[in-house]
Amino acid sequence: MASTVLIVDDSLTVRMDLHEAFEQEGFRTVLCAGHAEALAALDREQFDVAVLDVRLPDGDGLDLLRRLRGHRRHADVAVLLLSSEAEVHDRLRGLRTGADEYVGKPYDAGAVVARSRELLHATAPPGDAHRSVLVIDDSLTFREELRRALTAEGYEVFTAASGEEGLRVAAARPPGAIIVDGVLPGIDGATVIRRVRLDAALRNVPCLLLTASDDYTTELQILDAGADAFVRKQEDLAVVLAKLAAVLRKSASALPLPTAGSPLGPAKVLLVDADSAYLEAMSGLLHEDGYEPVLARCADDALAMLAVQPADCTIIDLHLPEIDGRELCDRIRSVPGLRDMPIIVVGVADALLECLAAGADDYVRRADGTGTLRAHIRAHLRRQQLHDENRRIRDELLRREMEAAEERAARKYAEARAQLVEELEWRNKELEAFSGSVSHDLRSPLQTILSYTELVIPEVDPESAQQLRRVYAAAQRMNALVDALLQLARANRGQIRRTRVDVTALAEEVVEELRQRDPVREVAVTVTPGMRAPCDPELVRAVLVNLVGNAWKFTTRASDPAIDIGTAPAGDEVAFYVRDNGAGFPTDQADQLFRPFGRLHDSRDYPGTGIGLTTVQRIIDRHGGRVWAESEPGRGATFAFTLPEP
């Protein structure tokens, strides 16, 4: 959907000029001639961009801006203020009121559209920008002939009949290359190229200049203007295509660097001088050079302006009435964000060394004329652009080196991880082999000891029988320990096969087994119905065997033993718990129970292997859950665990 632009200006010429520029770039426009008409449009329409004139016949543009910023639907609209007032305090009022940009009149419609796109964070138009070419020529016949030739080679072609129109088209849609005629109505081709080179968004675009001259001096002037190549008009179009392909090949090999700051629109030059006539004269000359002048009559206005919107270059009068120009230089240089901004001091006497020592980049005597000052401004802006370009190149190279270092580190990490995984798999195979060895090699001698001891006990005297019963009990404990170790090994290996398990049914099975094993005991067991969880049924059954078995064991000395198995909320999860009213333990020592062979009670009172809770923790960890315990001595214990969705 096309973005909508509100254009408010009392001049019909301005409204139609901006309407055509925005409409050509795919925007929808709403035109208003005054304050009241705009207020009605705010309630009626939804806008993405607003271009507001500061001076309106029936109201103030800044008041309209305040209304817009306070409007429920338009508070985030990108706003550009248009004004013929170039004074700093006018800009400050607009920017501080909430404008995103302040554009002085006379304006460049293409730059206004391009800046609006930037504020909207609009993406580049579809297609390969490297294959787009802008042709600037006042001859319709030649433009169409060149368009057909370029289109046949697969280029996307835009055309313009004058240098001014070409710069607007380039600002709105930066091309991959520019072909411009040397002789044009208005500004000539060399001036077009110079202005392209001064635009941060366009300065790397290859430029070919067409010339009808065979003069060697003209060729030097063309190249000095910044052209990448020139083609004589009398030559075949194949030469144009060949030279275009050559400069595009060179352009494609350059680093794709992002442009810092706001590259669209003319460079802003801040003029600080108390002489109104001098400011007006320089303002007109800077407009001719393609810059946007910002006029400040005192140091305070200049500092306030730079704090809100930095300039691309600052020109300071050495003899300001309230502050010396050198002191103003020093104050500007003390601001971190302004240290690289070019500063040129203009004075009557020869004060070059003093001004450079104060932080100025250059000094121009007023007697040398405005032409000298304009040349110095152009030179410093070019140098600053080169400095910015070099800094971006360094930043880009550093970024690429950091990415390469991260890639190398990630590769080394992946290799080390693969090696560890391989070693872990080997260790697991060893553990499986060890488990098999334990199962066969240890169980067989234990069974032999148990069997022969059981046979010999009735045949010996009472004292020897008592000693053999101790041997028999020790063998049984060792057999139970082997079983526990095997269960722990099984909990650590193998894949988890998750299904939707009826945890209630599993708990009831475990309780029934305990009742059959110990039919004499009377234990009140409550199991909450309908408990289900995504888990491995065999592993979770082992969890319940250990937890419910512990609760059964530690309630042997309770007067009315009771066990409760159910669920309870645990933050955003549901926890399963096993609660008893048995012996209990200090809660601050609960972590010891989950360590292998960790015990808090004498084995003679409550026998066990000390492996069961370690097995429980390993199984719950493998399911991605957590397990914990709460208890008080003599008041029972609660063991809880979670089984989250995979």
UniProtKB/TrEMBL annotation:
Enzyme class, spelled out: transferase
Ion transport in keyword set: no
Keywords, ordered alphabetically: Kinase, Phosphoprotein, Transferase, Two-component regulatory system
Pfam families found in the cross-reference section: HATPase_c (PF02518), HisKA (PF00512), Response_reg (PF00072)
Subcellular location: Cell membrane
Positions bearing 4-aspartylphosphate: 53, 181, 317
Catalyses which reaction(s): ATP + protein L-histidine = ADP + protein N-phospho-L-histidine
Primary location recorded for the protein, binned into one broad class: membrane
PROSITE patterns the UniProt entry points to: HIS_KIN (PS50109), RESPONSE_REGULATORY (PS50110)
Record's keyword annotation contains Transferase: yes
Domain of life: Bacteria
EC number: 2.7.13.3
Domain Histidine kinase: 437-646
InterPro entries xrefs: BphY/WalK/GraS-like, CheY-like_superfamily, HATPase_C_sf, HATPase_dom, His_kinase_dom, HisK_dim/P_dom, HisK_dim/P_sf, Sig_transdc_His_kin-like_C
All copies of domain Response regulatory, residue ranges: 4-120, 132-248, 268-381
Name used for this protein in its record: Sensor-like histidine kinase SenX3
Organism per entry: Dactylosporangium roseum
Lineage: Bacteria, Bacillati, Actinomycetota, Actinomycetes, Micromonosporales
